[in-house]
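[09:14] KT: can someone run the structure on this one? pasting the chain below
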Amino acid sequence: MSGDERFERVLKEQIGLDAGCVGPAAIARAVSQRSAMLAARNADEYWTRLHGSAEELQALIELVIVPETWFFRYPESFATLGKLAFQRLADLNGARPLRILSLPCSTGEEPYSIAMGLLDAAIPAQLFQIDALDVSPISIERAKRAIYGKNSFRGAALEFRARHFSAVADGYALAEQVGRQVRFQCGNLLDPGLLAGEPAYDFVFCRNLLIYFDLATQEAALEVLKRLTRSDGVVFIGPAEASLLSRLGMQSLGVPLSFAFRHSRVTPGTAAPSQSPLSPRPPVRPAPEPLRRRSEALARPAPARRQPLLDSQRPADAVADQAVEQLQAIAGLANAGRVDEARQRCVDYLAQQGPAADAFYWLGLLSDAEGQPLDALGFYRKALYLQPQHQEALAHLAALLAAQGDAAGARRLQDRAARGVSKDA
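[09:31] RB: done, C-alpha cells below
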C-alpha cells in the first residue's frame, strides 16, 4: 500500500472522506505540507508521526477540509424554514422552543443565517435554539469569534448585514443577540454516539457533506441524521444530494430550491399528513411574510462572457447593466420557487444576449433541483464550454457526477476547480 493510500484510508476512517470525491492530489498536497512543517524525511516517517498523534491527525484534517460557505447560501431553504417554523410553533403551543441543528457548521455562516432568518421572520428569540457542530476546532473558534470578511457576504441582497452586523477593523462583527441563539461544539457525524441522550431536532441542516462520502458511508451518515431528526422533522441538504436522499428512502417536501426532506414514513400512532407541509394553518400569531428580505442568490449573478449585442445603438455599459439585472431577476425567481418563470427568463436571456455561462449554469441548477440530472449535466457542460473555470458549474457538475458514481470524472473537475482557485489566490 502506497503512502497516499494509507493517508486516504485514515481520513476515510476518521471523517468519512472519499478520496475519489476530493481527488487524491488534494490529500497528497496536505500530506506534503504537514510533512514539510514537521521536517519529516519521507512518507513513512510522517506516517509514523501521524499514527501516534491525535493532534497531528487533526492538523491533517484541517488542511483537507477547506470550508466554502457564506451567509444565506440557498436562500429558499431559509424561507421554507421560516414557514415551517411558524407551523411547528403552532403545533407546540408554547410547550417548548424549536430545536435546530446545523452540521457541519463550518465557520458559522449557516447557523447564524438560520438565526437571522428566524429573527427577521418575527419569531421571538426564546422560541428557538440552534446547535452547531463541526469536526474542526479551528472552524468552531472562528465561528465563536463571529467576525467575517467580504467573502462571507455574496450577492447583491445584503440588507441583513446592516441589521445584524457592525463594521470593525477586520470585517463585520455579528450582533450579540444573533450569536446568543447558537451553541457551538465539536462533533463528527460519523460518531454513532453523536448527541446521544439529546432530544431529536425539529430541523436539521446537513448540506454538501454526504457528497464527499462513498455509498456505504452515506447510508451510515443518513441513519445518524434520521436519529437526530424527529419523525415529523425536516432535513435540509445540498442540491446535489437530493437524488441521494430520495434513493435512500427520504421524501422531498416538493418546495423548489429548498432541498428539504422528511422521513418517508410516519411513526405508529401518528397521522400521515393529508396536505402539503406548507399548507396554511393557524399560526401562533399573524405571521409576517417570512424572510421577505432575501439574501444573495444561489450563485453569483454577474454575467461571464457576453456575445456581441444586437442593439448597437444603446451604450455598451447600459446594455451590460441590463444583462446584470436580467440575471438578478432570474436568481430572484428561482429563490422564490418560481422555477418555470426562472427557466423562461433564462431562455429569453440567451435569445437576447447570446450564449452565456451564467444562464446555462442557472438552467443546470434548476434542472438539478427538479430531479432532472441528465438535463442538468448538459447545461453545466455548456456553461463550462463557454467559461471553463466557472466555479459554481464545476462544483455542481462534480457533485452530480460523484452522486452518479463517476468518481474519476468528479475528481477531474475538482482538480480543475482547485487550479482555478489557486490562480485567483
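[09:33] KT: thanks! Residues 266-313 have pLDDT under 50 and may be disordered.
[09:34] RB: yep, looked fine to me
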